[in-house]
Amino acid sequence: MTPSITEIKVDADDLRIARLAAAAVGLALADAAIPMPLPGVKPGLANIVALLVLARYGWRSAAWVSGLRVVAGALLLGQFLAPGFFLSLAGAVCSLAALALAQYLPARWFGLVSWSLAASFAHIAGQLLLARLWLVPHDGIFRLMPVFALAALFFGVINGLVACRLQQEFMPEKPAP
Amino acid sequence: MLLSFLRPGDLALILLAAAGTALCFPLFWQGGAGDKLVIRQEGALFLEADLRTPREIRVPGPLGETRIVIRDGRARVVADPGPRQYCVRQGWLSRAGEIAICAPNRVSLMITGKDAPYDSLNY
C-alpha cells in the first residue's frame, strides 16, 4: 500500500462494525431480490444483524451498522438519494429510536422478539409518515396501513426468532434462556 | 424449537401487535363507510334515514312505489316500477357518495358520510 499522509486510524471497533455492516448489506441485497407483492413490504432481514449487534455491542454500534447498511445498500442498488432511500432511512431512524427504548425492557420478560417487533412497527410507522408528509400528501396512503402492519407483525416475529437462534449459535457468551 | 425462545413478555407483545394489526383493518379500510341514506323524490328531499336502523321505506312516484330496504349499514332498492330496473340492479350501497337513481319513478338515493370524498354524479 502506498503510504499516505492522512492515515485513518482503524481500531478493532471500526473493523467489527464494518464487518457487521457488510453482513447487513448482504442481507439487504437479498431482501431486495425477494419479489414482494407491494413496494415497501420487505422481510427486512438486515434487521436481524441490527438486533444481534444491539444485544452484543450496544445501541451505538447498532446505529452505525444500520446507518451504513442503509447508505451502502442504497448505493449498491442504485437507490441512493432516490425516494426509496429516504423511506428506508426514515424507517431505520424510527427503528433505532424504538430499539433505544426497547433495550431497557426487562430482559427476564422480553427478548429479541420484542425488540424485533418494536423495530418493525417503528419502521413502517416512520416510512408511512414520511410517505404521507412528502411523497403522497393524501390520507389515502393510510389505506396501506393494515398490509404494512401485517407484514411488520409477521416479519418482526420471524426476524426476532431468527436473531434468537443466531444468538444462541454464535454468541454463547450471552446465551438465550 | 424456535418457539422456545419466546419469553412471556414476547408472547404478550406478539398478541398485542396482532390485536393492533387486526384493529387496523376495520379502522383503515372502512373509511368512507356511509352513515346516512338520503332519499329524494322529484329532486326534493323525501327522507333522511340512519343506516344503522334496519327498515323498509316506500317512496311513491309517478309510476308507482319504489321500495327501499336498509339493513346491516347498507341500503338498496328492492323493487321499482321502472322498465329497466337499473337502480334495483345497482345492488347494495354502503360507501359515502354511492348513489342509485330510479329515473322513471323520479326517486334517487344516496349514501352520505363524514368523509365523502366526492359524489359520484359530480365526479
List the domain count of chain B as a whole number: 2
- As for the CATH topology of the largest domain in chain B, it is mini-chromosome maintenance (MCM) complex, domain 2
Q: List the chains of the largest interface with their residue counts.
A: A-B, 29 and 20 residues
- Tally the structural domains of chain A: 1
- The SSE order of chain B reads HEEEEEHEE
CATH topology heading of chain A: Arp2/3 complex 21 kDa subunit ARPC3
Query: What separation lies between the terminal Cα atoms of chain B?
Result: 57 Å
Mean of residue pLDDT of chain A?
A: 88
Name the quaternary structure: heterodimer
Characterize the overall form of chain B. rod-shaped
Which blocks of ≥5 consecutive residues of chain B have pLDDT under 50? none
Helix content of chain A: 55-70%
Structural class of chain B: alpha+beta
Task: Classify the beta-strand content of chain B into a percent band.
Answer: 25-35%
Strand content of chain A: under 5%
Q: Secondary-structure element order of chain A, as H and E? A: HHHHHH
Q: Which regions of chain A have little confidence, pLDDT < 50, spanning 5+ residues?
A: none
Helical segment tally of chain A? 6
Strand element count of chain A: 0
Helix/strand layout:
The complex is a heterodimer of chains A (177) and B (123).
Chain A: H1 12-33, H2 46-57, H3 59-77, H4 83-102, H5 112-135, H6 145-170
Helix pairs in contact in A: 1-2, 1-3, 2-3, 2-5, 2-6, 3-4, 4-5, 5-6
Chain B: H1 8-29, E1 36-41, E2 44-50, E3 55-60, E4 65-71, E5 74-79, H2 86-89, E6 99-102, E7 107-112
Antiparallel strand pairs in B: 1-2, 1-7, 3-4, 4-5, 6-7
Write up this protein.
The complex is a heterodimer of chains A (177) and B (123). In chain A, 69% of the residues lie in helices and 0% in strands. With 177 residues, chain A is mostly helical. Chain A is globular, with a radius of gyration of 17 Å. Chain A starts with 11 loop residues before the first helix and ends in a 7-residue tail after the last helix. With 123 residues, chain B is an alpha+beta fold. Chain B has helices at 8-29, 86-89; strands at residues 36-41, 44-50, 55-60, 65-71, 74-79, 99-102, 107-112. In chain B, the strands form two sheets. Chain B has a four-stranded antiparallel beta sheet. A three-stranded antiparallel beta sheet of chain B has the order 3-4-5. Chain B starts with 7 loop residues before the first helix and ends in an 11-residue tail after the last strand.
